[in-house]
Design brief:
482 residues; 3-stranded parallel beta sheet; globular; disordered C terminus
Length: 482
């Protein structure tokens, strides 16, 4: 019996895809999420769950090392593909599926000089950097473009993790009744660190917190630890952990370096976004405002459609971080329908049901109440505008503000009047070329994250959802004017 071929065919039949979004890759990410949903291919949350690593967006030299680190963490069999834009997503996924099921592409390479299988003690680590084109594996794969430096046994462990990682949150949130239940399984997971907020979940050291980080490490990949007093006066280890730049449900390219004592953030610092090459980057969500600022006629209906879709995208990311994947999928479907030009009359009834379920969820409100408090006055003083300033409160207030804004915008999809970019808000606030609204949102993060638990920190970032692509767009616009 051809056991190896059987394992490879099983892996390629319905691969789990880890989506790594590069700056400027929003359009490619949205297309990838849509195609994966139509194909019923699961989105992986961590490298350990993934069979295919899909890099979405134009090549970013500053993040090649982070992408390579993700690639190193994928168990075999595995494949790495790149979709620079939305049009390259389906070909990239086809290539990834073909390579995943190919014996030649998955052949172990321990016999190559300087190579070793996983767990070996000779040679250097497998290195494969993303390059332009459909698949990053070519040129590094030896005979036949192999993507593997292990054997098929890794995949069985990954398959077990697939089931474990997806069963828990889905069980807790199978419909609105499950989510609003008094005991709130996933809600208590956040508070008690057994779910997404734990050390192996969304905010954990072995989950999202380990994606694409940099910094100094000890042998074996363990971060160096210092010691310091915590808020109870005890001396505890301090871990220096990077959040980003390639986390799932995280602003693309954003890196926040935090100092942790236990699961409490003691310090937080935002790194400068990667600026080495901003050519080809598109600030997808503010395109109507950029075009209107350049003198192109744009209607308020088009802007309202893009703004509502952006808020639904932000809600989907927040709900994923909070552990409510069923409603996150509903938000993504509504988002995609709006971007595809669906009339407001067909979207409004489904949106109303979604808004009622999410807005009235007691468990979601309980999980997010009191986290990331920013008053309207504090927001205005910090230069924040848009929903985050109008909400004037915590994470709960901000996602409810998104829901209210979406309802309003869906009723304005046919508005014929021209868009005034200096007056009509973009998704994250009033648009200015020299001071994009996401810059103020990013500036809020260090103070809001300091003192928060790690799970709460993920929710805070998701509730603000700054878009680093706005900074690149503003930088390019100012440079063009100069």
């Amino acid at each position: 019996m051809d056991v190896t071929g059987l394992v490879l065919r099983a892996a390629a039949a319905r691969p789990h895809v880890l989506l790594a979004t590069l700056p400027g890759g929003t359009a490619a990410r949205l297309e990838a999420e849509r195609v994966l949903r139509l194909r019923d291919w699961p989105l992986a949350a961590t490298p350990a769950q993934a069979d295919v690593l899909l890099v979405a967006g134009p090549d970013c030299p500053d993040l090649r090392a982070a992408v390579n680190r993700l690639w190193q963490d994928l168990p075999a069999p595995r494949a790495l593909v790149h979709a620079p834009g939305a049009g390259g997503v389906e070909p990239a996924l086809e290539t990834g599926q073909a390579r995943l099921g190919s014996r030649a592409d998955q052949r172990p390479r321990a016999e190559e000089p300087g190579r070793t299988t996983r767990g070996g003690d000779a040679g250097g680590p497998h290195h494969q950097e993303p390059r332009g084109g459909e698949d990053h594996g070519e040129g590094h794969a030896g005979n036949g473009g192999s993507h593997d430096d292990g054997d098929g046994d890794h995949h069985h462990a990954a398959e077990a993790r697939h089931g474990d990682s997806q069963a828990g949150p889905q069980d807790h949130h199978d419909g609105p009744e499950g989510h609003d239940g008094g005991n709130g399984g996933t809600g208590r997971g956040h508070a008690g660190h057994e779910g997404h907020g734990g050390h192996e979940g969304h905010g954990g050291h072995e989950g999202h917190g380990g994606h694409g980080g940099g910094g100094m490490e000890m042998p074996g990949g363990l971060p160096m630890a210092d010691q310091g007093e915590d808020r109870d006066g005890l001396t505890l280890d301090q871990l220096h952990v990077p959040l980003g730049p390639l986390l799932a449900d995280w602003p693309a390219g954003l890196t926040v370096r935090v100092t942790l004592q236990g699961d409490v953030v003691r310090e937080a610092e935002v790194e400068e976004p990667p600026w080495s090459d901003i050519t080809g980057r598109e600030a997808f969500w503010v395109q109507p405002w950029l075009r209107a600022a350049a003198g192109e006629p744009v209607g308020v209906g088009e802007a309202a459609r893009r703004r509502a879709a952006a808020h639904l995208d932000s809600l989907a990311r927040l709900l994923s971080v909070a552990g409510w994947p069923a409603e996150a999928i509903v938000a993504k479907r509504l988002r995609d329908d709006l971007l595809d030009g669906a009339p407001g009359a067909s979207v409004a009834p489904r949106l109303e049901r979604f808004a009622r379920r999410v807005g009235r969820s007691r468990t979601l409100a309980w999980m997010t109440r009191g986290i990331g408090q920013v008053s309207t006055e504090e927001a205005r003083e910090a230069g924040v505008s848009g929903p985050a300033a109008r909400a004037g409160g915590d994470v709960t207030d901000r996602y409810r503000q998104w829901l209210a804004d979406i309802r309003r915008d869906v009723g304005r999809l046919e508005g014929p009047s021209p868009l005034r970019p200096a007056v009509d808000e973009s998704p994250r606030g009033c648009w200015r070329d020299d001071d994009p609204p996401s810059a103020a949102l990013i500036a809020l993060l260090p103070n809001l994250l300091t003192g928060a638990e790690l799970a709460a920190a993920r929710l805070i970032v998701a509730s603000l959802d700054p878009d680093p692509d706005e900074l690149a767009a503003a930088r390019g616009t100012v440079g063009a004017h100069d």
